[in-house]
Amino acid sequence: MAKGWTSLHPFQEQRLRAIGLNGNQITQGYGYAMASAGSHAPVGAKDGRQFGHCIDLSISYAPNRPHFDALARAGFCPFYRNWPGNYHWHVVDVAWIRNDTGIAPRHLDLPRRQVLDFLATPPRNGLVGHDALPSAWRPTEAQQAYLRRLWETGAMPDGYATPDPILKVIYPPNAGAAGVIPCAPELVNGKLRGNLAEFAEALGFEVVWNAAQRKGYVRKP
Q1: DSSP-assigned letter for residue 176
Q2: Domain extents for the chain?
Q3: What's the CA gap between 106 and 154, in Å, rounded?
Q4: Distance CA 130, CA 133 (A)
Q5: How far is CA 169 from the centre of its chain?
Q6: Which of 197, 91, 113, 92 is nearest to 152 (CA)?
Q7: Residue 127 contacts residue 81 (beta carbons within 8 Å)
Q8: Distance (Å, rounded) from C-alpha 140 to C-alpha 138?
Q9: How many CA atoms lie within 13 A of 167 on its CB side?
Q10: Backbone torsions φ then ψ of 135, nearest 5 degrees
Q11: Is the pLDDT of residue 78 over 90?
Q12: What does the alpha-carbon distance between residue 119 and residue 152 come to, in Å, rounded to a whole number?
């Protein structure tokens, strides 16, 4: 079970440091602990570090609402696990964190379902029973909307710049820099992928997002 800053993506470390955490409070980054049911499995590597989307934090980062709000603002879904003998924060990163090749790996199934639980109405706990979160640990509607925007569009958490994409989509083709559409496209195995909603909208289409499937559909308005 990896812990400390080196068990995280550098951008995860940057955001957690900014809200006051230290490396000793990272009790699990990527890892294969059976108790975690695969939620912490690594999805990629960046600058010599493996990383996943789930992180466990010590309750020395006190379980209170200001810390909950700070984690959400930094782009994490914070679940406070009030388990006797194992009190901790379990947080799921919704940011599109990129590996060494510039690709943002998809969330594994369990972290994905935990994000959807956190964004549900009412917000749920991300566990097998999908019980509603206690009122003290529920995100506000504004926090849900903010995290949903990061999750669905690839936008960066407030205060952080979007990394330059490997490729750029320019429309019309002769428009030069003025025609760059900020959809963060990437070439993966010879195919273009990424958040192409802005590109579709620039062509006059309407994009409909299915949050449950985490897929977008394009249609003529």
Answers
A1: G
A2: 5-153, 169-219
A3: 11
A4: 9
A5: 24
A6: 197
A7: no
A8: 6
A9: 15
A10: -55, -35
A11: yes
A12: 12
